[in-house]
Design brief:
The complex is a heterodimer of chains A (582) and B (308). By secondary structure, chain A is of the alpha/beta class. In chain A, 34% of the residues lie in helices and 24% in strands. Chain A starts with 27 loop residues before the first strand and ends in a 12-residue tail after the last helix. Chain B has helices at residues 2-10, 12-28, 34-37, 46-55, 62-75, 87-122, 127-141, 144-158, 172-201, 205-212, 217-245, 249-254, 260-270, 273-301. The chains are: A alpha/beta (582), B mainly alpha (308). The interface between A and B is medium-sized, with 37 and 27 residues.
Chain lengths: 582, 308
């Protein structure tokens, strides 16, 4: 894609001095960029000497983990650095003009018209109080759209259609909260491309979406930008996605570019140590079940879990069995006393064998988290039953239920939300022990120390608070807290979905090791099939509250029976690429 | 939506009965005999006192008195008070001036509170912000009578810009100073609420998106910051409307205004039970109406809120 096609442009009046250049001249050229933030403790250099070039019509991806400076670099281009951030050195040239130190008017003129942005989180990036159409049309007006109100509305409809939202007339009159995440992201793409910019910055445009939706939207974006001749700068943490969508990769680590070059070349032959680790830990179809210590299995578990309930040899082989499990939510109707039923989980059956991992896979809204909450005893099934260790949980008395809780523990998705910010790490891990009156204070402290060691954190972490820890460290704390009571089953509800690939790989490894050591059984809830391959023995694929496919992991991956499962597999980013071969 | 408003209006009935019964009960149980106090030091002759008690049904049991009151309310004929002036007239005289004052105060505190709060929130940590914060703290800390007298001395006496007191039949100009004094404290609260809310909204993702679209700074502020920041402010203003309608004994006293606050105070002192209960009931209804308006305004400001 090397030609600039501006015939479709509605604002084809480039400011003076920016004559259209030939293809050999870069559209965006960043040289030796330095960005610093002033904090209470001093100046932090978030970006240190970054070079980056984007040619007209080219697609470039910046890949890196959170904190690598990739988003900061992107935001510096359109002068939207948060807080105290400022460009401390280097140059950003766009279409022959310098963007650093541009005055406010010129910056506002450049935004939207020359460089568009598709932001990261579709849930928070649309203003909830304005209609979708209004939010698109104000972008048109701000960027010099001349025309009557009717023409503008027609254009909005056209843009929505272009972004993959047919029925644009009606959509334009709706509010963001009436849209799904995917639809909102499409609206944001329509806004980003509304004034036909020459460069589109796509900042993790789909990381908050389900894989199948992600694939559709990225396909669409690719088609649209190549049709319009727009250059795209992707910002992503997902190497597979980057390689699949961009011609050129730039790998960033701790504020520096560690490697850049053609996408496939980097994947096949990574030079830098960090890139190699990134390639190795990228979850993809090629990855295999984490085996470490797994075979050691149950005997070890019986020895180690010492004061825990003796593992009964006569105990049922399947620790959790869900039979015809159903959950119906009543949604309050418009008049008092009326309601409609919403069946979130519709008669599902699954089996979690002792010491194994069962993955419940599905998109958002498939009912997988509802099922998990019923297993945890946090929601009461409308009908059907959860049989835990041979006993129907519905028949348990309050006291027995309390006892059961200690044998089934959760780890939730958001490590920022699931730890109480006012509790120190010690308090967080000790709380379940205190609640269940395990040992005296001294014994409990020792136990917390042991648990931290188990999750590979130093004992000094005890005095710290969640806000001082990284996402990966917090998730380790959450795992330690779940382990505190020596549970038999751990329900992991999207436990690694919010983490960067490298951290994700570490936590998966940790979970694999712990399973081997302690003989734990995992119920693993996720939307990410690539992760499933690494951790699960069995897979149950959920769709609209039902289980559509339930088999071993290898069967599901090598020989999927259902079309829906095949779609899910095909949507894994980078699935077609040979990466991850360690 | 209509169903929602209808349901909210139906709630007025139990609130009305409960409020009147409660207030009437409290006034009834009050120690002291207003009739005996009518004659001052010497007291009235026993026979006259008896006649007055009969005229005002004061010898009847509590519920009979209460029913007389209800009848009076619904026919809007509450009879005379001890001075012979009809109760309805006293009330009808008190409310317009208080209403006028309340509306003026609301306008002042809304315009200046939101205006200054917006600028302070946009320039958090800068000189304007710090200055305005200190001033607002001062406004909150100063008792109304201090503020009132200071305003009278400077604006009224020294500068001669505004009339010092309002007096009987006040016009717009003479109510301006009392309205400013009345608005003072609330203005400071609105300012602080707006400032906090705005400072939070400008860091929102959707505001960044709006800027990335190429909107000018003014457009971003007006369309994407201000409206999203107003919900907590509207809540406060709604509650304040109720407070202002109850009048202010202090402000009305300082500026010699014959409003609801002063009338209520006098009626309590003189034991004019019917006047006290009627005014209180009207105020309860005003509160209910103000709350309903606030709730409906929420839905206007934020389309995610819908009433059914």
């Amino acid at each position: 894609m090397t030609t600039i096609n501006l015939t479709d442009s509605v604002t084809d009046e480039a400011p003076a001095g920016a004559s259209r250049r030939d293809d050999s001249a870069p559209l965006l050229e960043i040289k030796d960029l330095e960005i610093s933030f002033t904090t209470a403790t001093g100046v932090v250099n978030a970006v240190r000497g970054v070079d980056l070039t984007v040619y007209p019509g080219q697609s470039v991806a910046i890949v890196g983990e959170s904190g690598s400076g990739k988003s900061t670099t992107a935001h510096a281009i359109i002068d939207l650095l948060p807080g105290t951030g400022k460009v401390a050195g280097g140059s950003i040239e766009f279409d022959g003009k310098s963007l650093v130190g541009l005055n406010r008017k010129a910056t506002e003129h450049m935004r939207g018209r020359e460089i568009g942005l598709v932001p990261q989180d579709p849930m928070s990036n649309l203003n909830p109080v304005w209609r979708i159409g209004t939010q698109i049309s104000e972008a048109l007006v701000a960027n010099g759209f001349q025309g009557t109100k009717a023409e503008r509305e027609a254009r909005v409809t056209e843009l929505l259609g272009e972004a993959g939202l047919p029925d644009g007339d009606r959509r334009a009159r709706q509010y963001p909260h009436e849209f799904s995440g995917g639809m909102r992201q499409r609206a944001l793409i329509a806004i980003g491309l509304a004034s036909r910019p020459k460069l589109l910055i796509a900042d993790e445009p789909t990381s908050a979406l389900d894989v199948t939706v992600q694939k559709k939207i990225l396909d669409h974006l690719e088609e649209l930008t190549s049709e319009l001749g727009t250059a795209v700068l992707f910002i992503t943490h997902d190497l597979g996605l980057a390689a699949e969508r961009a011609e050129h990769l730039v790998v960033m680590y701790k504020g520096k570019v560690v490697e850049s070059g053609p996408a496939l070349e980097i994947l096949k032959n990574p030079q830098h140590e960090y890139t190699r680790r990134l390639v190795a830990s990228a979850p993809s179809l090629a990855s295999r079940r984490i085996q470490s210590a797994h075979e050691a299995g149950k005997e070890a578990a019986e020895q180690i879990s010492g004061h825990e309930v003796e593992v009964d040899t006569k105990a049922p082989k399947d620790v959790v069995v869900a039979k015809d499990l159903t959950k119906v939510f009543k949604i309050r109707g418009s008049r008092p006393g009326t309601h409609t039923d919403f069946t979130a989980v519709d008669g599902i059956d699954f089996v979690l064998p002792r010491g194994k991992t069962l993955a419940l896979v599905g998109e958002s809204g498939s009912g997988k988290s509802t099922a998990a909450n019923m297993v945890l005893g946090l929601l009461e099934p409308t009908s059907g039953s959860v049989v835990f260790d041979g006993k129907d949980t519905a028949s348990l008395s309050g006291k027995e239920q309390f006892q059961m809780r200690r044998r089934v523990q959760p780890v939730f998705q958001n490590p920022y939300g699931s730890l109480d910010p006012m509790y120190s790490v010690f308090n967080s891990i000790e709380e379940p022990l205190r609640l269940h009156r395990v040992g005296d204070r001294k014994a409990r402290e020792q136990r917390v120390r042991d648990l931290l060691e188990m999750v590979a954190l130093p004992a000094s972490t005890m005095q710290r608070f969640p806000n001082e820890l990284s996402g990966g460290q917090r998730q380790r704390i959450a795992v330690a807290r779940a382990l505190a009571l020596n549970p038999e089953v751990i329900v992991l509800d999207e436990a690694v979905s919010a983490l960067d690939v490298l951290v994700q790989a570490q936590i998966l490894q940790l979970l694999g090791d712990l399973q081997g050591e302690l003989g734990l059984s995992y119920l693993f809830i996720t939307h990410d099939l690539a992760v499933v391959r690494q951790i699960a023995d069995l897979v149950a694929v959920m769709k609209d509250g039902r289980i559509v496919e339930h088999a071993t992991t290898d069967e599901v991956f090598d020989d999927p029976q259902q079309d829906y499962t095949k779609d899910l597999l095909a949507a894994i980013p980078g699935g077609s690429l040979e990466i991850g071969g360690v | 939506m209509l169903w929602y408003i209808g349901r909210r209006l139906l709630q007025v009935i139990p609130v009305f009965i409960g409020a009147t019964l409660l207030v009437y009960g409290m006034v009834f149980l009050r120690p002291g005999d207003p009739v005996a106090a009518l004659g001052g030091e010497r007291g009235l002759p026993e026979a006259v006192q008896e006649a007055i008690r009969a005229q005002f049904h004061l010898n009847e049991p509590f519920f009979v008195q209460y029913l007389y009151f209800l009848k009076g309310i619904f026919t809007w004929d509450l009879g005379p008070d001890f001075t012979g002036q009809p109760v309805t007239e006293t009330i009808a005289n008190a409310f317009p001036v208080t209403f006028e004052l309340a509306v003026m105060a609301i306008v002042i505190e809304t315009v200046f509170g939101i205006g200054f709060g917006l600028i302070a929130g946009l320039r958090k940590g800068k000189v304007f912000d710090s200055t305005v914060l200190v001033w607002s703290l001062l406004l909150i800390a100063l008792p109304t009578f201090v503020l009132g007298f200071v305003a009278q001395i400077f604006l009224g006496v020294k500068l001669g810009w505004l009339p010092v007191t309002a007096g009987r039949d006040p016009n717009f100009e003479s109510l301006l100073m009392p309205a400013m004094v009345l608005a003072g404290t609330s203005l400071a609260y609105i300012l602080r609420l707006t400032r906090t809310s705005v400072a939070e909204t400008i860091t929102a993702d959707h505001v960044r998106t709006a800027r990335a679209k190429g909107l000018s700074r003014g457009q971003v502020t007006q369309r994407h910051v201000l409206r999203n920041s107003l919900i907590p402010v509207v809540t406060f203003i709604g509650a304040d409307l109720g407070n202002l309608m109850a009048g202010s004994i202090v402000t009305e006293g300082i500026f010699n205004i014959n409003g609801v606050g002063g009338t209520l105070f006098q009626s309590i002192v003189r034991g004019e039970n019917v006047t006290v209960v009627t005014i209180t009931t009207i105020l309860v209804l005003v509160y209910i109406a103000a709350n309903l308006i606030v709730d409906l305004l929420y839905a206007v400001l934020d389309p995610r809120i819908r009433y059914a």
